[in-house]
C-alpha cells in the first residue's frame, strides 16, 4: 500500500503508484520533493552529542503526545510509561494467565487435564508440522547473514558513535552475555538432553548422523545437543541485537523493539504499529521468563532435597518430592518468591550494579563447578571428548543444519492418526459405509486402506525411520523457543554491547558463548554417558544401542526412578545411577555423586547457587526489558515501575505453578513457541532493515540517490496521515479507503492505472488482461471445489501466477520512479 515520492510519473502526469495488490491512488504535490529512503540524516546524528534517554524529555520526542502517562506523589516519581503499551501488555498477560488457570478440568474418569494446554499443543503441532522448512531455513539464513555483516564492509560500523568506547569491559560483557542467553539451560539440560538421545526406557531411535556402534551413538547424542545450543541458537539473538543497537545508539533513538522496523517504515513505527510491536514483545518476554521460572524451580527443589539427603539410594528429607502435592507446590511457590525478591532488589539497583555483579558471581560459580568436575573425574577423557565433539559438530553442522526430516515426516500421512498437515487430512468415509459418520482422517491412509481392505504397514518398521514427531518435539521446539526470546535477549544484548562494532558483537556473541557453552555441555553430557555405561556394565545389562533403549525394571529401577534391586542400590550408594531411568531433575545431581559424600554436598551447593542466580539474572534482565519497552525506551524508570514488572513475572509464575501445576506452565511454554511463528517472519524483515540501515549510514550512492513511496501499508495506524516533509500532499482518507476496497475486490482495475504509466499501451493491456483472467480463474476454481475435487488447487496456482505478475509490475514501478527496495 504505497505511493512513490515524486510529484510526476514518467509520462508527466500527476503522481501515482501501485499499492499492495495493485491498486492506484493519485496524489499531487506542488513542487518536486525528494524523500530520503530513511527519514534520518546519519551525518548529523554522528556529529551530535549522545542523547541521554534517562532524560524523560528526550524520550517524549519519540512518543505520541496522547500516549504518555506521568505520575508523581510530591517529588517522588511513581510512573512513566506509554499507557497503550503498558495497559495492553498487562491485560494480555494477566488475561492469559487467568484463562490458563481457569481451564483446569476433569475427564469422565476424574483425571485432571488442562484445556488450554490441549488447544495450545494442537496449535504448536500444526505450526511445527507445516512450517518445519521455515524454521530450519530461517535459522540458517540468519546465521549466514550476521556473519556476512561481520566480515563485509559493514563490519567496522559501531553500535554507537564512532568515538564511543564499549560500555563494559570484555570479561564483564561476556559474563552478562552468558547470563542473558542460555546460562540456566546448560544446568537444566546439560546432563539430561544427551541422555534423552543416548538411552531411554522407551523406543528411542534417532538417526541424525551415521553410527555403527554405541560409541558413535554416544557421539551423535553430544552432537545433537551442540546443534541445538550452538550456532543456530545465537543467530536470532545477534541479528536483533545488531539492528536495535545500530538504530538506537548510532542514530540516537530510544531502545524499543519498534525501532527495528524504522529503516523500513520510517516514522510510522512511533504510532500504533510500534505500540503493538512493543506490547507483543513484552508479552513474549514475560511468557519466556515465567516459563523458565516454572520449569527451573523443579531442578532447584530436587537439588535442595538431594543436598539435604546426601549421597545414596534412599532419601529421607524434610524437602518434599516433586509429586504434585500441595506441600510440593507450596515449596515451589516459596522458591519462586525468593528468586523474585532477589531479582527485584537487583533490578531496583540498576543494570550497572545489580545485574552486572550477579552475572559475574554466577559466571564464577559455573566455572568453579565445571573445572572441579574436570579435575575430579578422568580429565583426559573429558578433554578428548571436547576436542572430538567440536570436530564432529563442525563436520556435520551444514548437513544437519538444513535437515528437515522430510522423509520421516512423510510418514505422518501413512498412519491412521490424523496429522495436522495442511490439507492432508479431512472428514473421510473410512469404511465405505455411506450411513456411517465421516471422521477426521489422513487422506492417503483412508484411501489406501479402503482400496486394499487392510491397514497400511508401519513406516517406522518398514523403513527404519526415527519418529516423525522427533523434530517437532526437539529441534523445532528449540528454534521456536530461541525466536520467542529474541526480543528479550536481543534488547538486552544490544544494551550491554553499546560502543562495540558489528564485527566485535558477532564474533564475541557467536564464538565466545558457543566455545564456552560447548565445554559446559560436553563435560556434563560426557559424564552422564560415562555414568550410564558404568551402571550397564556393573549390572551386566547390555542396552539395545540401535534402538537406544534399556529395560529399567530389569536394571532394578521403579517408575519413579528409585533403585530397588540389591545391585542397583549398591551402585547408587557409591554414586552411580542409571540416568536413563532417573527423573529429569535428579540427573544433574546424580553426576555429582561419585566423588564422595563431602564433595557431593560441596558441588551440590555450588550448583544450587548457580542455578538460583541464573534464574535471578533471567528475571532481572526480563524485568529490565519489560520496563524499558513500556516506558518508550526510558532507561531509568521510576522504582515502583521496576518493581511492578519484576513482581508481575514472579506472580504469574507462582499463580500458574500453584493453580495449574506443570500443565499450566507447559501451556505457557506452547504459547511461547507459537509466538515464535510471527516473530520468525518479522526477523526475516529485520535482515533487510539492518542491511538498509548500514548502507544508508555509509552513504552508499544507490540508496542515497533513491527515494521512497509517500504512502505505506501501515499508514492506517496513523489515521492515513503519517508525518511527511513540507510540500508532500497525501491522498485523503476517502481516496485511500476507496482505492484499497477496489484493490481487494478487483485488483486488475487499479493495477491498470500503473501499467499504462510504465509500459506501452499494448503491454499494459496484456498484463492487465492476464491478471484479470487469473483473478477470475482463482475465484472460479475455489467455488468449483464444491463439485470438482481438487479444483481449488488449480485456483491457488492461478493466484500464485497473479501475485507474481503484480510483483513484476511493482519492480518495474520502483525502477521507473527510482524507489529503493526489493520486490517485496
| Mean pLDDT across residues | 87
Strand order of the largest sheet: 1-2
Low-confidence stretches: 1-31
**Helix-residue proportion:** 55-70%
Number of strands: 8
Shape: globular
Give the end-to-end Cα distance, rounded to a whole number of Å: 12 Å
Looking at this protein, list some descriptive labels.
two-stranded antiparallel sheet, disordered N terminus, mainly alpha, about 800 residues, 32 helices
What is the gist of this entry?
The protein is mainly alpha-helical. It has helices at residues 42-47, 56-60, 83-102, 115-130, 132-151, 170-181, 183-189, 192-198, 214-229, 231-250, 262-265, 272-309, 326-349, 351-376, 379-401, 406-410, 443-452, 459-463, 470-473, 475-484, 486-496, 502-538, 552-555, 566-573, 584-590, 597-630, 639-697, 701-704, 733-745, 747-758, 761-784, 791-817, and strands at residues 16-19, 23-26, 68-73, 76-82, 104-106, 112-114, 425-428, 439-442.
How are the secondary structure elements laid out?
Layout: E1 16-19, E2 23-26, H1 42-47, H2 56-60, E3 68-73, E4 76-82, H3 83-102, E5 104-106, E6 112-114, H4 115-130, H5 132-151, H6 170-181, H7 183-189, H8 192-198, H9 214-229, H10 231-250, H11 262-265, H12 272-309, H13 326-349, H14 351-376, H15 379-401, H16 406-410, E7 425-428, E8 439-442, H17 443-452, H18 459-463, H19 470-473, H20 475-484, H21 486-496, H22 502-538, H23 552-555, H24 566-573, H25 584-590, H26 597-630, H27 639-697, H28 701-704, H29 733-745, H30 747-758, H31 761-784, H32 791-817
Antiparallel strand pairs: 1-2, 3-4, 5-6, 7-8
Helix pairs in contact: 3-12, 3-27, 4-27, 5-10, 5-22, 5-27, 6-14, 6-21, 7-26, 8-9, 8-22, 9-15, 9-22, 10-20, 10-21, 10-22, 10-27, 12-13, 12-25, 12-26, 12-27, 13-14, 13-26, 13-27, 14-26, 15-22, 20-27, 21-26, 26-27, 29-30, 30-31, 30-32, 31-32
Amino acid at each position: 500500500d504505497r505511493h512513490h515520492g515524486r510529484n510526476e510519473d514518467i509520462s508527466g502526469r500527476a503522481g501515482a503508484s501501485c499499492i499492495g495488490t495493485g491498486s492506484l491512488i493519485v496524489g499531487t504535490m506542488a513542487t518536486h520533493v525528494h524523500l530520503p529512503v530513511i527519514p534520518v540524516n546519519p551525518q548529523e546524528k554522528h556529529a551530535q552529542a549522545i542523547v541521554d534517554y534517562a532524560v524523560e524529555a528526550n524520550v517524549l520526542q519519540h512518543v505520541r503526545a496522547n500516549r504518555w502517562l506521568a505520575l508523581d506523589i510530591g517529588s517522588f516519581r511513581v510512573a512513566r510509561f506509554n499507557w497503550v503499551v503498558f495497559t495492553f501488555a498487562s491485560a494480555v498477560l494477566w488475561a492469559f494467565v487467568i484463562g490458563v488457570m481457569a481451564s483446569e478440568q476433569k475427564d469422565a474418569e476424574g483425571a485432571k487435564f488442562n484445556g488450554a494446554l490441549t488447544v495450545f499443543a494442537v496449535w504448536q503441532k500444526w505450526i511445527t508440522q507445516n512450517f518445519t522448512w521455515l524454521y530450519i531455513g530461517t535459522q540458517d539464513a540468519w546465521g549466514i547473514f550476521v556473519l556476512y555483516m561481520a566480515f563485509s564492509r559493514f563490519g567496522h560500523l559501531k553500535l554507537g558513535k564512532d568515538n564511543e568506547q564499549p560500555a563494559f569491559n570484555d570479561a564483564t560483557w561476556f559474563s552478562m552475555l552468558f547470563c542473558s542467553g542460555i546460562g540456566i539451560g546448560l544446568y537444566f539440560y546439560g546432563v539430561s538432553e544427551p541422555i534423552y538421545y543416548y538411552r531411554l526406557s522407551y523406543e528411542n531411535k534417532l538417526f541424525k548422523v551415521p553410527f555403527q556402534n554405541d560409541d558413535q551413538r554416544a557421539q551423535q547424542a553430544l552432537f545433537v545437543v551442540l546443534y541445538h545450543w550452538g550456532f543456530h541458537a545465537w543467530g536470532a539473538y545477534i541479528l536483533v541485537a545488531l539492528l536495535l543497537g545500530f538504530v538506537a545508539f548510532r542514530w540516537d533513538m530510544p531502545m524499543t523493539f519498534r525501532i527495528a522496523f524504522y529503516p523500513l517504515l520510517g516514522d510510522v513505527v512511533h504510532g500504533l504499529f510500534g505500540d503493538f510491536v512493543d506490547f507483543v514483545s513484552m508479552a513474549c518476554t514475560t511468557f519466556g521468563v515465567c516459563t523458565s521460572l516454572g520449569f527451573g524451580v523443579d531442578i532447584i527443589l530436587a537439588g535442595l532435597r538431594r543436598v539435604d539427603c546426601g549421597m545414596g539410594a534412599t532419601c529421607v528429607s524434610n524437602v518434599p518430592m516433586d509429586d504434585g502435592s500441595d506441600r510440593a507446590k507450596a515449596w515451589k511457590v516459596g522458591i519462586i518468591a525468593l528468586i523474585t525478591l532477589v531479582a527485584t532488589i537487583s533490578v531496583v539497583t540498576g543494570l550497572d550494579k545489580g545485574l552486572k555483579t550477579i552475572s559475574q558471581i554466577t559466571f564464577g560459580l559455573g566455572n568453579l563447578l565445571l573445572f572441579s568436575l574436570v579435575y575430579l573425574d578422568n580429565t583426559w577423557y573429558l578433554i578428548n571428548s571436547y576436542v572430538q565433539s567440536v570436530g564432529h559438530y563442525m563436520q556435520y553442522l551444514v548437513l544437519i543444519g538444513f535437515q528437515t526430516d522430510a522423509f520421516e515426516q512423510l510418514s505422518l500421512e501413512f498412519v491412521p492418526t490424523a496429522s495436522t498437515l495442511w490439507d492432508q487430512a479431512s472428514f473421510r468415509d473410512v469404511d465405505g459405509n455411506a450411513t456411517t459418520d465421516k471422521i477426521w482422517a489422513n487422506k492417503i491412509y483412508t484411501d489406501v486402506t479402503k482400496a486394499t481392505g487392510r491397514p497400511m504397514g508401519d513406516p517406522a518398521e518398514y523403513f527404519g525411520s526415527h519418529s516423525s514427531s522427533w523434530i517437532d518435539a526437539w529441534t523445532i521446539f528449540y528454534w521456536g523457543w530461541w525466536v520467542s526470546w529474541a526480543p528479550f535477549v536481543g534488547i538486552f544484548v544490544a544494551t550491554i554491547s553499546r560502543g562495540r562494532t558489528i564485527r566485535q558483537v558477532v564474533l564475541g556473541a557467536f564464538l565466545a558463548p558457543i566455545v564456552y557453552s560447548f565445554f559446559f555441555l560436553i563435560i556434563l553430557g560426557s559424564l552422564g554417558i560415562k555414568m550410564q555405561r558404568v551402571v550397564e556394565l556393573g549390572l551386566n545389562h547390555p542396552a539395545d544401542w540401535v534402538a537406544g533403549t534399556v529395560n529399567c525394571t530389569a536394571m532394578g529401577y521403579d517408575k519413579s526412578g528409585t533403585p530397588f534391586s540389591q545391585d542397583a542400590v549398591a551402585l547408587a550408594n557409591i554414586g552411580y545411577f542409571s540416568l536413563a531411568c532417573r527423573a529429569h531433575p535428579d540427573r544433574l545431581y546424580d553426576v555429582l555423586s561419585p566423588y564422595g559424600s563431602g564433595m557431593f554436598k560441596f558441588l551440590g551447593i555450588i550448583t544450587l547457587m548457580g542455578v538460583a542466580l541464573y534464574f535471578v539474572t533471567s528475571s532481572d534482565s526480563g524485568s529490565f526489558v519489560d520496563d524499558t519497552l513500556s516506558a518508550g525506551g526510558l532507561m531509568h524508570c521510576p522504582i515502583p515501575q521496576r518493581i511492578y514488572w519484576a513482581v508481575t513475572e514472579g506472580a504469574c509464575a507462582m499463580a500458574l505453578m500453584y493453580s495449574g501445576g506443570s500443565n499450566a506452565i507447559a501451556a505457557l511454554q506452547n504459547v511461547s513457541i507459537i509466538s515464535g511463528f510471527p516473530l520468525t517472519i518479522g526477523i526475516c524483515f529485520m535482515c533487510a532493515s539492518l542491511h538498509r540501515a548500514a548502507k544508508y549510514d555509509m552513504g552508499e550512492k544507490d540508496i542515497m540517490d533513491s527515494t521512497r513511496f509517500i504512502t505505506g501499508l501501515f499508514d492506517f495506524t496513523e489515521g492515513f496521515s503519517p508525518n511527511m516533509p513540507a510540500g508532500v500532499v497525501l491522498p485523503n482518507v476517502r481516496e485511500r479507503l476507496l482505492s484499497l476496497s477496489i484493490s481487494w475486490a478487483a485488483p486488475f482495475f487499479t493495477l491498470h492505472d500503473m501499467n499504462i504509466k510504465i509500459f506501452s499501451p499494448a503491454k499494459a493491456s496484456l498484463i492487465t488482461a492476464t491478471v484479470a483472467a487469473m483473478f477470475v480463474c482463482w475465484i472460479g476454481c475455489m467455488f468449483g471445489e464444491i463439485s470438482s475435487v481438487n479444483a481449488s488447487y488449480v485456483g491457488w496456482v492461478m493466484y500464485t501466477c497473479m501475485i507474481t505478475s503484480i510483483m513484476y509490475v511493482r519492480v518495474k514501478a520502483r525502477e521507473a520512479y527510482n524507489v529503493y527496495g526489493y520486490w517485496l
